[in-house]
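Hi Y.,

Following your request, here is the sequence exactly as I used it, all 438 residues.
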Amino acid sequence: MKYFVLVFSLLTLVFSSCKDEKSTPEIVIEPAVLHHSNLTLLETVMEDALSPPVASRAYVYPHIAHYITLSSFYPDSLASVINKLNGLNEINFTDSTNSHPELSALYAFTNIAQKVVFSEHYINKLRDSITHNAQSLNFREEVIHASQQYAKAITDQLASWIDQDNYIETRTFDRWTSTKLPHNWRETPPDYVTGLEPHWDKIRPLLLDTVGGFVPKALPEFSTDPNSDFYKMVLQVYQQILNSKQEYEDTAWFWDCNPIGTVHQGHMVMVIQKFTPPGHWLNIVNQVAESENASYIKSTKAYTYTAISMFDALIDAWHLKYKIDLVRPVTYIQEYIDPHWKPVIQTPPFPEYTSGHSATSASAAGVLTEIFGDNISFTDRTQLRYGLKERTFNSFKEAARQVDSSRFYGGIHYMIGVNEGSRQGYYIAENVLKKLKN
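Below is the corresponding structure, written out as tokens. Let me know if you'd prefer a different format.
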């Protein structure tokens, strides 16, 4: 796997001795094991080159499985999400005798992760490493086996629930056909790919009662008149790129998060894979949880709540994108202002309004602010592998605001698109926190 080295053997599992060899030992598994499992999932999804919406699905279900399994052992620390997540009305928990809480939850994570990715062998390696390290640290076989069986009983039920989210059905729906009308989205250079996931709003949300509850500001009426509000909205993007500075471009690239970016050189096309927007934010959770020395319980909550919020945000954003069907800046500018103009980063293949990255980021920032606080300073090193410098932020919301700017600096969104996407993300986060608190 690109850039990935399995490092599970370096993670520390600390356990205390027991007075009676026949009793189940009190084993403490460090949060680092969970962080590593999350990172393995992020790397696997990047290897599979899943689009942001599909990637959000691959991220959220393993974390939900982990959360539900762990909360069955610690109900006072992790409130149950059963009967809160749409369609998940019941889980029958089997006898947990000899099962270890964190070990069972980690097996549940791998069981569902294997279901929602293509490169299953990476998840198999993760699961094997969990077992191998448990054995090398003298976990009794009956504890390992009981934990595996307890996790399987839960994830077998979750698998049936997952299969009912309409994902499989949407794979058979018609492809998106652009109208070719000037105000609507059309396939954009350099790849001119058809619209991505036009039916994503048919996917079952996790906590939203209805999709489309967020109402964005009205767009100016389409016009090519230089004196019109619409033309001025586009011109703002055009002039931003013409007057761009290196710091703006660096910001655009830091938050690019294009899982399938292409570089064209003559007849050769190279593909650059990166974490998706929700993947980038789950890596931020990883870094913050480690730097804050967050407990296993708090880390579990942060991963799961954030993944749920981003999943619902992308469903809601995609609903507006294809309902409003707004032309991208590159199309309008090349047709009506400057045929040679190019954005800084590659325009993604779906309509503009609202910004999905802004909605994703705000939904994550809203949840993480509730969990860690509004003044947590953190350093994000996600893009070091691509030669970009680390960035330090004073809060999650500050990082989310920079995401908004980055899409405008990159030339792929209008200012109203990122502003309304941000509002949409916080709307989703508020709903998530309200539902999970009740």
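The two ends are 41 Å apart (CA to CA).

Thanks again,
Q.
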